[in-house]
Design a protein that fits this description.
The protein is about 5% helix and about 45% strand. By secondary structure, it is mainly β. The two termini are about 25 Å apart. The strands form 8 sheets. It has a 4-stranded antiparallel β-sheet, with no helix packed on it. Strands 2-3-4-5 form a 4-stranded antiparallel β-sheet, with no helix packed on it. Strands 6-7-8-9 form a 4-stranded antiparallel β-sheet, with no helix packed on it. The longest helix has 9 residues, at about 170-175. The chain is globular, with a radius of gyration of 19 Å. The chain has 2 helices and 30 strands. The chain has helices at about 170-175, 235-240; strands at about 5-10, 15-20, 30-35, 40-45, 50-55, 60-65, 75-80, 80-85, 95-100, 105-110, 115-120, 125-130, 135-140, 145-150, 155-160, 165-170, 195-200, 205-210, 215-220, 225-230, 240-245, 250, 260, 265-270, 275-280, 285-290, 295, 305-310, 315-320, 340-345. Strand 11 and strand 12 form a beta hairpin.
């Protein structure tokens, strides 16, 4: 493979993509969730365009998916309200818990063997998978969660009304592992987060992603902005936080007017700590969050960027594209227009001025 090769995955989903994730480490496995009600498992190596290994059917659109402890299991959530474990070898699906509304996000922490889902019913479900406890611990939230992200020690939850909660991950895992009562109401716990924050962004949050060094996180909004913040609550660290405009394109009909696009996706490079942003303008850009500068911007993709992820070893960047509602089109149709691209990164392609 050329160091700058980019290719399109064959047999993509038939409807809009909600998320995609690589396996851990040097894995070439890629898992994709879609509004067509399926989860797709690919191997991006082995043949041109990658290989669709298996498709896992769900009852409703799937809004998020992630791998578990290894490449033999995955977890999915969606509009059927369920949190599911998928055995990727047999295809068997097990419902771990059920929310009272659609489930927007799911993440798995290998450090604590903890699975966390975030639902529009304004709750988190915490499953500690290393114990025999089969019941999820429910944590109420003050508003609807839009995006969640993990570090090795923290969980960041970005919500409506510009609310952001930062939780201690090990505390959540410990509390969940001690849950034994099978009655759902008995397992609802009001847990005080490590920090409560107000988003630096004035408009609705679209995505949040944590830095791989556990120092902070980036968030993005519908109004073409990205904010970078640090966990350290000291005034010195908090004075470093900043936000910047991006994913804005000049209007074709009006002079001196920019069209502002939502920043739908964020992903941090696991080695260099730089991050990628993907917008409704079909653009993917790489940023050095420490040096506060753009590293590079890629050629425009054929449609709105819906999801991004770097492989665990930092060699690949996966980009999901599908038509959005940015142009206000009434005849929206993703059939045949949904695509997944994989870029093979050059050795220093994602390395910024503040990189290692």
């Amino acid at each position: 493979m050329s160091s700058t090769q980019q290719f399109e995955i064959s047999q993509p989903p038939s409807d809009a993509i909600s998320s995609l994730r690589f396996g851990s480490g040097a894995s070439t496995r890629l898992i994709v969730s879609s509004w067509d009600g399926n989860v797709y498992l690919y191997d991006i190596q082995g043949q041109s365009g990658g290989q669709l290994i298996q498709k896992f059917e769900h009852r409703a659109p799937v809004l998020d998916v992630c791998f578990g402890a290894d490449e033999k299991e995955a977890f999915s959530v969606g509009l059927d309200h369920d949190v599911r474990r998928i055995d990727l070898e047999t295809g068997e699906q097990t419902v771990l818990s059920t929310h009272e509304a659609g489930v927007k996000s799911v993440v798995y922490s290998p450090e604590t063997s903890t699975l966390i889902s975030a639902s529009w019913d304004k709750t988190l479900h915490i499953h500690t998978l290393s114990t025999s406890t089969k019941v999820a611990t429910t944590i109420p939230l003050p508003a609807k969660p839009f995006s969640i992200s993990l570090t090795t020690t923290k969980l960041v939850v970005a919500m409506a009304s510009r609310a952001v909660h930062i939780y201690d991950l090990r505390s959540l895992a410990l509390i969940s592992s001690q849950t034994a009562d099978p009655t759902p109401t008995a397992n609802t716990l009001e847990i005080e987060p490590l920090q409560r924050r107000e988003s630096s962004l004035r408009f609705m949050t679209r995505a949040v992603a944590c830095m791989p060094n556990d120092a902070g996180y980036a968030s993005s909004s519908i109004e073409g902005r990205v904010a970078v913040e640090w966990f350290d609550p000291s005034p010195e660290s908090q004075s470093r936080k900043y936000a910047f405009k991006c994913h804005r394109q000049p209007s074709a009909t009006e002079d001196a007017v920019d069209i502002v696009y939502p920043v739908n996706a964020l992903a941090f490079h696991p080695v260099y700590g730089s991050f990628a942003s993907g917008g409704g303008d079909g653009i993917v850009a790489l940023w050095d969050g420490v040096a506060k500068r753009r590293i590079r911007q890629y050629q425009r993709f054929p449609a709105s960027v819906a999801a991004l992820d770097f492989s665990g070893d930092g060699r690949y960047l996966a980009v999901a594209c599908c038509p959005g509602f940015e142009d206000g089109k009434e005849d929206w149709d993703a059939q045949g227009k949904t695509k997944v691209f994989v870029r093979v990164l050059g050795e220093s392609e994602a390395k910024g001025k503040g990189g290692k």
